[in-house]
What we know:
By secondary structure, the protein is of the alpha/beta class. The chain is built from 20 helices and eleven strands. It has two domains: about 15-55 and about 155-470, TIM Barrel (Alpha-Beta Barrel); about 55-155, Orthogonal Bundle (uronate isomerase, domain 2, chain A). Helix content is about 50%, strand content about 10%. The longest helix is centred in the C-terminal third of the chain and has 21 residues, at about 425-445.
Amino acid sequence: MTTFTTLNPHRYFDPEPTQRKIASELYEAIATLPLICPHGHVDPRLLADENFSLGSPADLLIIPDHYVTRMLYSQGVRLESLGAPRGDGGDVEKDHRKIWQTFAENFFLFRGTPTGMWLNDELVSVFGVSEPLNGKTAQAIYDHIAKQLTTPEFRPRKLFERFNIEVLCTTDTASDPLDSHQAIRSSNWKAKVLPTFRPDAVVNLEAFNWRENIAALSQESKIEIKDYKSFIAALENRRAYFKQLGASATDHAALTAYTHELTDQEAKTIFARALKGHTAGDDAARFTAHILMQMARMSVEDGLVMQLHVGSFRNHNDILFDRFGSDKGGDIPVATEYTRNLHALLNKFGNDPRLTLILFTLDETTYSRELAPLAGHYPAIKLGPPWWFFDSFNGMKRYFDRVIETAGIYNTAGFNDDTRAFPSIPARHDVWRRASADWLAGLVARHIIGKDEAKEMARDMAYSLAKKTYKL
């Protein structure tokens, strides 16, 4: 298969000639900057073993990617036919060529979507595919990719270097022993791969297998968790261990941004009830709100950057969750509120220069109404990039238009790819860099900023802001 690019070098830029010319110039200056990946979900096991195999094309690009499976499921494609493992042990398609064929025959569904943009970029830029993917070309392209995946050049470490990744941060549960990170550090490989502390599974009293998660936290911290005080001590212990292995950040997911400080007795009572297998009323919501306050306090003390991802109704499709588990595309955004919900946390810690709190939202209506004004005032707050459903070219444009006038770019955290799909990392960064260049070009064309200013801003948006905000 002959390799040649089919990607237009001016893709995503405004068709207006003046803006397009400026955008191209700005983009060229940042296109090859190293990639800073401060938040994502790449499995560190990929990088712990220098000979790790990425498996088949279906293993790599379809089965684990909920961006792919949710679109296909919405059009009536059964997850079983895509090889998604069932929690009940039911039969699923094992023939990866058939899985790939189903995917290819339905690839047209991704036209105009960010997933389509990323996949097309991956196929061309990473794998050198020179034909459109469809039912007719499916097997030839499968063979082409499969052959490459058997070569040393397509081992994850080699791709990491080829992608020009300067640093990559994973997301790891509070009880994770971090064996893969230990293996990376003890090898001769000089790449920078860091863990991120994610305690949701032990903080959310309604989390699946919460009691078992507490037991795992107790085991890894070597602190017997018998009450609220020992729980807090175990969390502090694990944060210190993560930091010892290079962690620069924590990550927290919640349905809302509600923060509230319980009395010590209230926290003890709620936690004691949970240990006995009982929760009452709004125990879970109040406890999460309280622990977010505790996490901010710990970040002030240990310097770890605090990320808060808010607004996802997890596992909305009960039938799908019962059959396949989480991360199958069944998470749906909900309306959120930040001004009142974060009041308690920000009044206690928001003026402290030792705290960096990066806020993410799945509710775009909050950008100009709440998030930009909060970031434009509190020294502790930075705004994360468009997240999940809005990690798209149009989502980025809306973000720039609604946030920057009030917050400025220097109260934002740059870009993170937030992906578990390792080969998509360069494509995701490229969309952000092109969107940034195009948006800045519009400001130059309207004589709002000068070209030299735009060049500095483009570099900051592509590279420097993320590196500085996440202390990397």
